[in-house]
UniProtKB/TrEMBL annotation:
Transmembrane segments: none annotated. PANTHER family: TYROSINE SPECIFIC PROTEIN PHOSPHATASES DOMAIN-CONTAINING PROTEIN (PTHR31126:SF1), TYROSINE-PROTEIN PHOSPHATASE (PTHR31126). GO terms for molecular function: phosphoprotein phosphatase activity. This is Protein-tyrosine-phosphatase. Residues 1-22 are annotated as: Disordered. It comes from Edaphosphingomonas fennica. Belongs to the protein-tyrosine phosphatase family. InterPro entries: Prot-tyrosine_phosphatase-like (IPR029021), Tyr/Ser_Pase_IphP-type (IPR026893). It comes from the Bacteria.
Amino acid sequence: MPRRGAVARDADEGHAGAAPWRARETVTQPEADALLAAIRAHAPNFRPLGEGLIAPGLLYRSGELASLDGHAWTAMERIGIRTLIDLRGPMEIEAMPVRPPAAMRLVSVPLHPGQGAGTGAGAIDNTAAAQRIGNAYRHLVQAYGRDIAGILHLLAGEDALPAVLFCTAGKDRTGIVSALLLAAIGADSAAIHADYAITNAMLSGPARQRVWDMSTRLATFDMPAGPIVDAMLAADPAYLEAAFDAIAPLPVFFERSGLDGAAIDRLQNRLLPPA
């Protein structure tokens, strides 16, 4: 899809790897980085979505936000967050409720990977586990096309941005919605894969163990023990490709899901950086 012109906005481009900040905020770059660090202390996979592809300060992606403390929520307010889009299911929400400040709108759009997404007893190696994850990705895009289109409509609206997309790990459901959003605004496959793969660096060490523990407790993907964890927690572009292959051609998928050309124009105008 071709890129279309974006409306001008008051943003400070910042620098690579740093927090992007709206120009009306009177914070220095070190202060901005400190605010982002305050959020990441509790949500380690929190980051700009499509950095370099989307205008700075408009859209973020994350794992669960239930662990944010008062200081982290204040940081979220400082970066101007208006809308939180929760992709988790009822069990996850009950176990880890998110309680944002009153000024932030919390929107629940549950996406469930479906039966057979977990490894189960039949998955004895990483290859089998990876196949199950691929199946879960196919199920998510085939079963929830209209829900995903609804999220993109919301983000194209007047009052949603800045916003955060999140699930439990910030990898699978958030990764799929983020990838489809980037495709809708004209990003190519290489850029989409690169944004998705950042999770591998964000969820390393203690952060990786934390996600593993949460997912095991919640049984989001019927988590196993042993080396299969590598396939289960990896942000492997092959998983995205499984999803995209299942709904190709993409323009037809968007149209059938209720996201027409006019809606895509609005989304691009909201999100693309100034030319």
